[in-house]
Design goal:
Two copies of one chain form a homodimer.
Chain A: H1 28-35, H2 39-47, H3 54-67, H4 73-80, E1 85-90, H5 96-110, E2 115-120, H6 125-137, E3 142-145, H7 152-160, E4 165-168, E5 178-181, H8 184-197, E6 203-208, H9 211-226, E7 239-242, H10 248-261, E8 267-270, H11 273-285, E9 295-299, E10 313-316, H12 319-334, E11 343-345, E12 349-351
Helix pairs in contact in A: 1-2, 1-3, 2-3, 5-12, 6-7, 8-9, 10-11
The structure holds a DNA duplex.
DNA sequence: CATTGAAATGATAGCGCTACCATTTTGGAC
DNA sequence: GTCCAAAATGGTAGCGCTATCATTTCAATG
């Protein structure tokens, strides 16, 4: 290759070159011409109206209306190094809790003219890595992640991309960049204390086996064991595990198995409200009064929780606020403002209703 | 303005101009230099590897690894008039049914290196219009809409944008461009016939008041009335309306009101599975056996439907397939393939379980 | 009227990649 | 070895907008 003779400049006239322009597309040039200003003034009239005279502004706006011009944000983003896109990665698009965060984030960003690119990792690090590669190529102004578990490669990639990153839905002291979340490990002990205060003497946990649910379950079981209120002899034997993708039916069958094993059970912490719903159904089928015979606590405070019979006591996390704050953090970063608080703990609360 | 003296070319040396390049960013030029090829060969090695020699390809790939290069998709999209983005508009990000469609669409598109921009219209045409303006500026390769109700302005905008558009979740003969959906008006008569065949003699409908739910409800009531099996004297009096954002509790209270009004009721069609769940709860509280005393049919076949007691009979629409087909249609269009079938009716089915 | 500084506008060049035409290289056939 | 066509590679220019420096215009002041 190095030995190749360099090609000489072509003698072909440039004017015979085919146009590469998207046909029929109205550009800023067209607007500027019609308005009788330069393209950059037309651009300013759109993006920085306060530095353009009222007269010029009105002429540009009239030209935009007449031509039906829509700015090409690809070009503007490239020229300004500002895409006004934020990319979000969720494990699944059909999980109610994450989507609440994404909704709030999307709304916050839409207020300032941002759009959201969405990606699904399917709870799989390799897929997340692939997705991150594609996403970084989009040059978003920020990236929001719905968890803190990433591959080493993914971390390095994100840290080196020069893009603001906000991790959510967890709380660790060493985020990639910024973090808005809550501590799963702190929930267990709070719920254990709550059930003890409620008079429970033999409690257990019914939990999905995804990483975060496992942490909540284990911290609950350990705290309950320390309080000497576990239904099983050990913390471990007071946990019943369910496959990660839970449903009402899975929760129901899981409770049946748990109750078989620990029939003296008088309180149960469920890894989600969906699981708790299954527990309520099975408890009723077995003639157990809730909360008299069995106290039930869920997680998530989903929309249906107050409507169950009895209304579900559950751990509430403000998914909405996480999304809003994540949006704020990114916008501040983009604006060059000092972001003092890179770690935001939104906490959680136990919403007391009729089930416990 | 027209009388202004044109500015003369500046004598300032071009080399004193500040660089506008994103600092530290590795570009294709850097990769090409390191690999000893031209930038366009490096580009081909990435995008069209089959027209590059194996030797050059490997040198480019090594250079990419060494530099950590990530293509700038803004630039590539602008130069090629191909963004590899598809924009989706949903009424809400927290509604389970739409998100199933979006998930399937996202997965289909991810297979071929596309990303999805997501927007929320909030069931508001003005908001949708605003969103469409922003979205069109992104120059996506396609736009997917989750309904056919748009403002006149929005329609004109979409039709004139030169971007493939797929409307979903409905079925009309006059889509803006392409359509993948099912007929809400056809569902009512099918459910009425089903309940009649089930032996019901006094049926009613419990429905949210959003446009599509209303169409299902009215067509059901009309068909049931024609079959002389309405619980009320008229089709209208056999409908009970709920505010559009329904929940289990709203469904439950709505059924209580309906039952108060029409106590001889022996079959009910609900506008969603969530509403049906509330009906099941209230029926049980009233000692009504389902389906012996009251047949219950839902809509949507949500994940919890089989787990209810009794398992819910419901109208199933393949939300997943709508997303997948929508993705396929857009990809075909982008590839310049002939898209013969611009209207795809995915139909619906009545999933018979224990509640009817 | 002249001067000055701020406001308004314009020119130049570039953001990073790729469409398309041009040129070179390679391999097979005779 | 020559010729030819296909494969491989490169040069030019542009996609549509905007950062930044340059120039012009305007308004206030003395």
């Amino acid at each position: 290759m190095k030995s190749r003779v360099k090609t000489q400049p072509s003698a072909s006239p440039a004017s015979t070159r085919k146009s590469r322009r998207a046909h029929g597309g109205v550009t800023l040039q067209d607007v500027a011409r019609l308005a009788g200003v330069s393209p950059i003034t037309a651009s300013r009239a759109i993006n920085q109206p306060d530095v353009v005279s009222e007269d010029a502004r009105e002429r540009v706006q009239r030209a935009i209306r007449q031509t039906g011009y829509t700015p090409n944000l690809l070009a503007g983003s490239l020229a300004s190094s500002r895409s006004r896109l934020v990319a979000v990665v969720v494990p699944t698009l059909t999980g109610p809790m994450f989507m609440e965060t994404i909704q709030a984030l999307t709304e916050r960003l839409a207020e300032v003219g941002y759009q959201v690119i969405i990606g699904q990792s399917g709870y799989d690090n390799a897929r997340e890595d692939e997705l991150l590669n594609a996403i970084i190529g989009r040059r978003p102004d920020g990236i929001v992640l719905t968890g803190v578990a990433h591959s080493a490669k993914g971390r390095v990639r994100l840290a080196g991309a020069g893009i603001p990153v906000v991790e959510t839905w967890d709380f660790i002291p060493t985020p990639i960049d910024m973090l808005v979340g809550f501590s799963h490990d702190s929930i267990g002990p709070e719920v254990a204390a709550f059930l003890r205060q409620r008079g429970c003497k033999r409690v257990a946990v019914l939990s999905a086996d995804d990483e975060r649910a496992v942490r909540r379950a284990k911290s609950f079981a350990a705290a309950a064991h320390a309080l000497r209120i576990t239904a099983g002899k050990t913390a471990n034997s007071s946990c019943e595990w369910l496959p990660a993708l839970t449903s009402l039916g899975v929760g129901r069958r899981g409770f049946a198995a748990l109750f078989e094993r620990l029939p003296k059970l008088d309180g149960v912490f469920c890894s989600s409200d969906v699981v708790a719903q299954g527990v309520l159904a099975e408890a009723q089928a077995r003639g157990l009064r809730v909360p008299e015979d069995l106290a039930v606590v869920g997680f998530g405070d989903l929309a249906f929780a107050p409507d169950l019979h009895p209304p579900l006591t559950t751990v509430r996390v403000d998914a909405n606020e996480m999304g809003r704050i994540a949006g704020d953090l990114i916008l501040k970063r983009v604006a060059g403002e000092s972001v003092k608080t890179r770690l935001v703990d939104v906490g959680f609360s136990i919403v007391e209703r009729g089930s416990a």
